[in-house]
Amino acid sequence: MLASHREYPAVLRILLVLLCWPLLAWAEPAALPLRPAYTGEQQAWLRAHPQLRVGLIMQAPWAQFDRRQQLLSGANVELMTRLLQAMQVEPQWLRFSEQAELEAALARGEVDLAPGLQQTPAGLRRWRYSDPYMRVPQLVVGERRGSSAVDLDRLGRDDKVAVRGPGPTFEYLRNTHGNLLLQTVANERAALDLLLSQEVSYAVVDEARLSLLLREPQFAGLSIVGDIGLPQLLRIASRRDEPLLADIVRTTLQAMPARELDRLQSTWFPLNTRGLGNPLAFWKGLSLLLVLGLGGTALSLAYLRRQRRFLERQLSEARGVLSQREEAEQALRLSQFSIDHSTVGILWVNWDSHLRYANLAAERMLGYAPGALVDLPLQRLQPGMTMQRWLDLWRQARGGNEALPGFEVDCLRADGSSLPVALSLSFLRFGLSEYLVVFVTDITERRRAQAALEESEARLKGIAGNVPGLVFRLERAGVGQVVDFAYISEASLELVGWPAAELQRRERGIRSLVHPQDQEAYERSQALALDKDRDWYWQGRILTRAGELRWADIKATARSLGEGRVVWDGIVWDITENKQVELELADSRARLRELAAHLESVREEEKARIAREVHDELGQVLTVLKLETAMCELAFAGQVEGLDERLASMKKLIANLFQLVRDVATALRPPILDAGIASAIEWQVRRFEARTQIPCLVEVPDNLPALSDAKAIGLFRILQEALTNVMRHAGAHSVQVYLRVEAGELCLWVIDDGKGFDPAQRKAGQSFGLVGMQERIFMLGGQLQIDSQPGEGTTLTARVTLDTEEVA
């Protein structure tokens, strides 16, 4: 191109440029079809998606809708129409009143593309952004006071600036121009209204909104007097889950000539031509005449167009460089903003221990005004930081590859008060300068929390030390982790003779104290509590360091802390004295039961002996008396007056006495027991049914194993007492009695449909019959269960174990 440039004389080139440039500026060439170089994968994706959903935020001049003509127009509409034509896809326009609605639609998966968005850290989690295609500056509007632009840094407190807020522009002005007195407004129109009413000196409005507002008559007299230096870099955003779509948009944008984007901006934001008049008409006519007169201008026109394309490419490259520089500057401003507003104080210190930089957090923390910390020696903040100590730290940090370990010190604030801080140091080389970066963290709350924790631990140790037992804590860090004793009180020395530190060792613990015969029960109860994350209870024998045997009671409460972490807080009580009393009491009760069983056995034997004597001896006497009476009746019948009546009366008395003797003998020991417990039970139930007229159902096995006499008599007496209770208290209409063998046990059920009762409300002294049955079954080594509810009858179950020889 440069070679062709030298082919024309310099004068001709200058003449052609002067004559034809207005024509070229006026007669803009028609937009040529875009021909992006898509890859095969991108072309396949476009064929699979013949329609794309485009989200538009309806805000003029970016996007607006004519309800009469039902047409969309605007800068974003025209841009997306051009791009989608190049992609050969159809748009589906989606209109939104604000960006929040657009973001909600994106979250629902209803939007594919959205033009005119700015890249933000939050937006990067939802969108994929293209390169900037348009730069919209933030302009300062006001009265022009001279030919130079307004410098915001030189404005005083008397000059108010109206800006829409809150928002990025407001935050930028507040953080970068601390001298400005900002007035927040709801929208740009309100800002210009305040400017017209002279309530503010200047207003900050973006170029797009300003191009619309300046068309209104009331704002026609306002002027653009400056630029704040924070342009809006507009990009096309695409769905995050479609990276191929983002690449297609980027390729299509790169294929669009820069002049088309300039034309788009000048068409919708015509600020650059406002108030300049229209001096081009003369040049248009003159250029047309000259073109008609000079046939050689065609060659010049081609040359100029080539030059224009060359300049456009250079301009596009320059814009790309400027855009990258602006992005870098914006990133730098964001980084500086993040550092200044960090919660951690940052100090840059030179080798001579003087401060070269301090962020806002450090200044606020130490109570200094902005910039007051610079050039202060570090010893002013920390008196113990002598020059020698500082140089030692400097050499360690400069010679090592890692940051120095942090430490805690007390710093002096500007008002002389002390501030506890944590310091960490890191060496930094910036250009030709070297610094030691000091990170300062306020640990006042940490110190308070630590003091409170130490006080709480001391209080806990004091309480645990005075508890008459061993206090402990078991901890499990997570699921499947080993359980360790995190704490054992010093009472262990008094209880078992071992110090707490010894018992906290993983190979020791409380299990090392357990008696060998109780180890299995201890480990089983502990494993059950640890596996199920529930409370732990165990009672057994332990051995002290001196070999002394003691009884211990362990109770621990489980508490889940989340994420599989569980702690058990418990105490080990010395229950040796109570256990000895309990064992002695149990032994005494066992002896009493043995004595009662012996007495009951003796009483049954005595009853059997008396029954035999009554039946045999008294029966023989009564038989003799009956014979003698019969002999008298035969010898003296009808001879003595009144003797026959007396002998008949004596025979009746003797018969009644025979029945009485049989009843007494049966009451003492029914002879039916000699036929087996099954026959005795059936006989007793039928006798009860005949006496009370209550229907009874009885079931006994045909082949019942042999049962010892003591157990047979015991079950029979329990049945007698149960039937007596039914007769006296139940008010039953029927009774069921079952005798069965189940799992090596002989079971007796007595079931009635009476009024029932609540076993929990039995009063002492009112149920000796039940107590007698319970004691009798205990003496037999069996179990007695009574199930009853008011109005639902009563079920009595007695179980005795069959001996091996009995089962056989």
Automatic annotation (TrEMBL):
Domain (PAS) spans 456-533
The record, for PROSITE patterns, names: HIS_KIN (PS50109), PAC (PS50113), PAS (PS50112)
Q: Which UniProt keywords apply?
A: Coiled coil, Kinase, Membrane, Transferase, Transmembrane, Transmembrane helix, Two-component regulatory system
Q: Where is the PAC domain?
A: 405-455
Residue ranges of coiled coil: 578-609
MF GO annotations: phosphorelay sensor kinase activity; protein dimerization activity
Ranges that cross the membrane: 281-304
Q: Which InterPro entries match?
A: HATPase_C_sf, HATPase_dom, His_kinase_dom, PAC, PAS, PAS-assoc_C, PAS-like_dom_sf, PAS_fold_3
Histidine kinase domain location:
609-804
**Pfam families named among the record's database cross-references:** HATPase_c, HisKA_3, PAS_3, PAS_9, SBP_bac_3
Spell out the GO cellular component terms annotated for this protein, sorted alphabetically and separated by semicolons: membrane
Q: Which SMART domains match?
A: HATPase_c (SM00387), PAC (SM00086), PAS (SM00091), PBPb (SM00062)
Q: Under what name is this protein listed?
A: PAS domain S-box protein
